[in-house]
Design a protein that fits this description.
binds cobalt (II) ion, 15 strands, Creatine Amidinohydrolase, 4-stranded antiparallel beta sheet, binds 2-amino-4-trifluoromethylsulfanyl-butyric acid, 5 helices
Length: 259
């Protein structure tokens, strides 16, 4: 069953998703050469708890940390470690939190210092694909944008409804064919999260049971926003007011609805 949320519930979802976005903005600023992903995880957990919220991923099916940090050929669900980031890495930082019974979830892939032209194109195209997907809420729109740039969409992981659980119905594939999903209705809250590989789409999970990597070793990027379907269009719950103008430039047409 897909739940349509009331205004009061959406207010709570907005609060927790804005918190996640604010913490993520701080984490992306600290992601630099020499910093470890364990350092990033520690700050993430401190900030989430200081706001009276709880990490959503820690303990979820035994996941051990507050953030997922996936570098370079890692696609998603990388576990924080003591390895320092190095110039030229790309790093996906994915974080969820729970506040007042409701969940937030957001991911961004950031360049560490100066990165290769291919890496920066991959980041740009993946974030653009996310905004195409937010407008259409059709995986086919994501896939079309990604493949037009010579990249590929990961099939094994999908977006999801989000509310009083981290993962609710429906599942949201990042690929087509379109036109088969449930009808959109006002009050649905969806986390849309394309994962895009520079090479082939195949992934495998490492022996830690979590870290997904590209089979061909190519770079991978991941961006995620939580979005409400409203009468006026879409409201991106994880978009900070300061980032709204930049996001408008990533969209297919017009500006995304602001919080
Ligand atoms: N954003 C990811 C998702 O929605 C991260 C989940 S990590 C996990 O699936 F540990 F919670 F599984
Ligand atoms: Co998610």
């Amino acid at each position: 069953m897909i739940v349509c949320r009331s205004k009061a519930e959406i207010d709570k979802l907005r609060r927790v998703n804005q918190l996640v976005a604010e913490v993520l903005a701080e984490l992306r600023r600290m992601a630099a050469p020499g910093v470890t992903t364990a350092d990033i995880d520690r700050v993430a957990e401190e900030r989430v708890r200081a706001a009276g919220a709880e990490p959503a991923f820690k303990g979820y099916h035994g996941y051990p940390a507050t953030v997922c940090v996936s570098a370079n050929e890692q696609v998603v669900h990388g576990i924080p470690s003591k390895r320092p980031l190095v110039e030229g890495d790309i790093l996906s930082i994915d974080m969820g939190a729970r506040l007042d019974g409701f969940f937030g979830d957001c991911a961004v892939t950031v360049p560490i210092g100066t990165v290769s032209p291919q890496a920066s194109e991959l980041l740009r195209v993946t974030e653009e694909a996310l905004f195409h997907g937010i407008e259409a809420v059709i995986g086919a729109a994501i896939q079309q944008h990604v493949e037009a740039h010579g990249f590929s969409v990961v099939r094994e992981f999908v977006g999801h409804g989000i509310g009083t659980a981290l993962h609710e119905e429906p599942q949201i594939a990042n690929y087509g064919p379109g036109g088969r999903g449930p009808r959109l209705a006002e009050g649905m809250v969806l986390a849309i999260e394309p994962m895009v590989n520079a090479g082939k789409p195949a992934v495998k999970v490492l022996s830690d049971g979590w870290t997904a990597v590209t089979r061909d070793g190519s770079l991978s990027a991941h961006f995620e926003h939580a979005v409400v379907v409203s009468a006026e269009g879409r409201e991106i719950l994880t978009l900070l007011p300061a980032d709204a103008a930049r996001a408008a430039g990533r969209a297919l047409s017009g500006a995304p609805t602001e919080a």
